[in-house]
């Protein structure tokens, strides 16, 4: 799409989190503005995992942070179970924060190097003055031995173990939605598999709803029920995972799949015929469809008119004037 | 991990402690009071009764220096605490709140810092009166702007970290975040700066006292003592010398301790440089024939002697590589894959010991000294690393950097080099190469920078190109472009490529042969297609099944390799993988499996996998372990 629109959103009573027309912008110096997210909408049903995939600069991490209002979006709505988060301020916002938790990419910088694991994980309950001590329980749930781990500091752990500690910290407050921002991309393959498996287990055990953000489509497919593809601050395509990978209709999704060695088993043309050049700067995005500067199917209409999200199949949505039909 | 402080720093800290203690206990020390005249003969040199001698009025110099320390250190401590007390809250506020708060605080700070400090101090003290309190306040206030700047910088760098964001997501209040998350981290740089600040203030107080603008006589101060002694320089130099030396040592000590504290908090990587004189005798190597091939690596070993023991980063790796082929080295972090190519290239930290041989077209590179190695590295072996910025100089244009090897190694003229550089940049797919010559690295995207480093690596037409995770930092679509480029250039230039990667799908697509490393050893080797389709060694098999693939069903359970890689300083007996291997039996714990004799597809395992298709295995394991 690199387009906008809300046609793909489900009725309010079916969803737990609903994000509508999210806009995130930052000053870029010299009076310019980074248009990180420009009118993105999506929703999550309770217990669902939504994967958000895209390359650097597509706005996926900015969108994640806007969900927890850190910082709040420039405009748009984020509704958690009917509660409008963007309208909350101060104490009211702080009180709802615990219902949404986050896990970050860098396992090392996610943990305060000067605190012990027990204090890091126990911070949430202490802030909320919750009774009982669940630190041991959640440490066990993420596969760490409380007896040996709790009194140590982060630098004594490997990257994968640090990521487990981050997950424990997020879980201890019993959040409804957990936003995972590239949680495994800094990890080795074998550790990545452990963490992905752990997230799936915890999702069942604690009945979590997950937003899973990553640049690696194979990883996203592994854990997600639906996948949202983003490009330069816009939504390209949204579909159930298997459907998106087996029947990609947006030119950018196809390029993404074709760029992965093996091409996902699809018989796609070589990647260099599906995408060219480099992504433009989000400070000065192209008019119309933002993908048009790299799209082999671009036509004059793509420069003047922004494509809107429309349905092309069973729960399969996309924003493109000339999608690929097969 | 405790880093050593070093002997000098302990000495410096000891000296500071001694001076401090003497100043505190001055009243109880067995010497004459500082103002007692004719405690000994005037202007006498050092003696048993007066170790530092006496001054013009026969006062004990040691006593005066010790009492002087009270003023100097007292002013130092007071001024530093004052600066910290005012500067730290402002700095933390500016760094944490940012925006308007930051802008206002920093604007005022910049103005304050623009004041000529010493002139200001002189003026104020001259006006308000030269006494201990005024000097302390003036020096303290003068230090505030630097404190604000330092604390703000430290706060900023931590406020950006994810753990602070995580605390806010938890709903932690700002005050608690500052107190629990930020303050403890800012404390270390602040402590180090406090020592350096002490040194600065002691010198400043000395200067004021020397000008007679500090505490007035008869109370001695170091600067004052030096001033008094000035007139006796000819007849009794010790009167000037004693306070000067003490002050010099004290200032030096404060600086030393402060610097060292700062270095402790700096996390820097070990620099890699061509091996200098070997740190120890090279490891012994069995004899072997030299083959007729482009690159032959025989029993290569790289060990590090550390306080924890000998770390065997690379432990007996052999392979050969011909022109026009790509060899991939795969493994997880700590498997030794990057260390292996650094070892082949001779780019190792000085603390390593290398053994074995590396032959390039029959020349033994391990016999080369750094001076002989340099032309080989530039011309015959090219390198591309994960982070293009390590290879690019940020302050020089792309043009100068691409032309440099052409001019140095190939001795081209400026014009020739320029023309060649344009051609090189075009060949790596850079649009408008002529304009590119004038640009700086920071003006390019990551993908473009990596293309430039590839152009530089190829400029002297190397025989072998070593690429260590060349596309890991790049986006997927750009990664595909760069890998295709490497593949094309390999064919065009008839060179060999050694590709180090953690990404098995990349390796499967672009490599002819693959080496799988585990704990510094080769555990399996063979044609890439075959190794990936029919892995024999269980680690290779697990690795393949642990990596998610696009063709796997949604919510497919990946194979989990339990545990962690072994500690390279304490390798287990037997097979290094045995603690994590589902097929391990007793023999695996006792005897290390050798690499099998099979030249086509050797592996190191006592109980190898049958070598049926991994595809089937993945499906069945997947179905079993999913179980829901
Ligand atoms: S065909 Fe047009 S609308 Fe569709 S992705 Fe390409 S440029 Fe955008
Ligand atoms: S030798 Fe034994 S422990 Fe090692 S990989 Fe083979 S079966 Fe597993």
Automatic annotation (TrEMBL), chain A:
One of its GO terms (biological process) is transmembrane transport. Residues 17-257 form the ABC transporter domain. Keywords: ATP-binding, Nucleotide-binding, Transport. It comes from the Bacteria. Belongs to the ABC transporter superfamily. PANTHER family: D,D-DIPEPTIDE TRANSPORT ATP-BINDING PROTEIN DDPF-RELATED, TRANSPORT ATP-BINDING PROTEIN. This is Peptide ABC transporter ATP-binding protein.
UniProtKB/TrEMBL annotation, chain B:
GO terms for biological process: peptide transport; transmembrane transport. GO terms for molecular function: ATP binding; ATP hydrolysis activity. It comes from the Bacteria. It is found in: Cell membrane; Membrane. The chain crosses the membrane at residues 7-26, 71-96, 103-128, 134-151, 182-204, 239-258. Pfam families: ABC_tran, BPD_transp_1, oligo_HPY. One of its GO terms (cellular component) is plasma membrane. The keyword Nucleotide-binding applies. It is a multi-pass membrane protein; Peripheral membrane protein. Residues 295-544 form the ABC transporter domain. NCBIfam families: oligo_HPY. This is Peptide ABC transporter permease.
